[in-house]
Amino acid sequence: MHRTQLENVDLNLLPALAALLDERHISRAAERTGLSQSAMSRALQRLRRTLGDALLVRDPGGYRLTPRAERLREQVAAVVPRLGAIFLAETFDPAALSQTIRLSGSDYTVAVLGIPLQRRLLTESPQSVVRFHSWHESTFEELGRGGLDLTFYGAQAPEPLHSTALFEDRFVCVLADTHPLAGAEALDLAAYLTCRHVVIDITDGSQPAVDQILAGRGTPREVGSTIPFHAVAPHALPGTDLVLTFPERLAAVFADLPGLRVVAAPPEIGTMTYRMAWHPRLDSDPAHRWLRDSVRTVARDL
């Protein structure tokens, strides 16, 4: 059937057609589909006009199918169940999934969230592969192009991406135990701004969760060094006067390193809301819903 013809066809007639061809009787077809006998008679008349064929012809023994109707009966029997399946809710079993799950984030993501998340995903979907990609300046664009399933970030993702908060992390300051401020319990903002800093280079040489707050106050910090990895940065502090502003969950891992002190960060810096972000085209995808639910479960258990 040509496209212009198909656009003029009422697909609601298909169940009536299937019932009429199977039952070869208007009353039984009506009962099967839940229609009244008069409604089924009207449906038959519309089908006859649409198809240009009588379909059912009465004879002394009841109704008989025309040759066209006999051919249609086989076609409809194959097509109607497939059409029905299109509109059924998709079922999803992660155990049957076999795909690469593509995640992106800094090494903070991997250290704090990634390992338990990987364990959960591979337990529920043992045929899948979990691949972590390093965060970079084009990560959000890659998410938009479909090159990533999820990314994790310590700030709000840009539109049109969707995101949701996973957990909060407080900032602390890590410094050498020989630093002039090493004896403090906490740094106030004035003292903090007199220091030179090790900046975790997340985007364009900045640590957005910290530097966006300071820039918004008009009090940027002085950069002494930028390092692209959280895990390496504490090792750069001994023997220097540098200050590292670090998420507390990860700082606990380095608290026992010799030569370091951990003190509270200025309250003006506040906390980091850590989020996951994805493209809205994946909102209703069953596999992606399972992935997001898995992330939320792991984040709640941290």
Summarize the structure in words.
The chain has 302 residues and is of the alpha/beta class. The protein folds into two domains: 3-86, Arc Repressor Mutant, subunit A, CATH 1.10.10; 99-301, D-Maltodextrin-Binding Protein, domain 2 (3-Layer(aba) Sandwich), CATH 3.40.190.290. It has eleven helices and eleven strands. It has helices at 3-7, 13-23, 26-33, 37-51, 67-86, 107-124, 139-145, 189-193, 208-217, 248-254, 286-301, and strands spanning 56-59, 62-65, 100-105, 129-134, 150-153, 162-176, 196-200, 222-227, 242-247, 260-264, 271-278. Strands 3, 4, 5, 6, 7, 8, 9, 10 and 11 form a nine-stranded mixed beta sheet that branches. A two-stranded antiparallel sheet has the order 1-2. The longest helix is centred in the first third of the chain and has 20 residues, at 67-86. It is rod-shaped, with a radius of gyration of 32 Å. 28% of the residues are buried.
Query: Could you give the count of β-strands?
Result: 11
The averaged pLDDT comes out at 89
First-last Cα distance: 58 Å
Helix content: 40-55%
Quick one: CATH class of the largest domain?
Answer: Alpha Beta
Query: Which fold name is given in CATH as the topology of the largest domain?
Result: D-Maltodextrin-Binding Protein, domain 2
> Strand content of the residues, in percent?
15-25%
Taken from the alpha-carbon principal axes, the silhouette is rod-shaped
Q: What string, H for helix and E for strand, traces the elements in order?
A: HHHHEEHEHEHEEHEHEEHEEH
Q: Architecture of the largest domain, CATH level 2?
A: 3-Layer(aba) Sandwich
Structural class: alpha/beta
Largest beta-sheet characterization? 9 strands, mixed
Low-confidence stretches: none
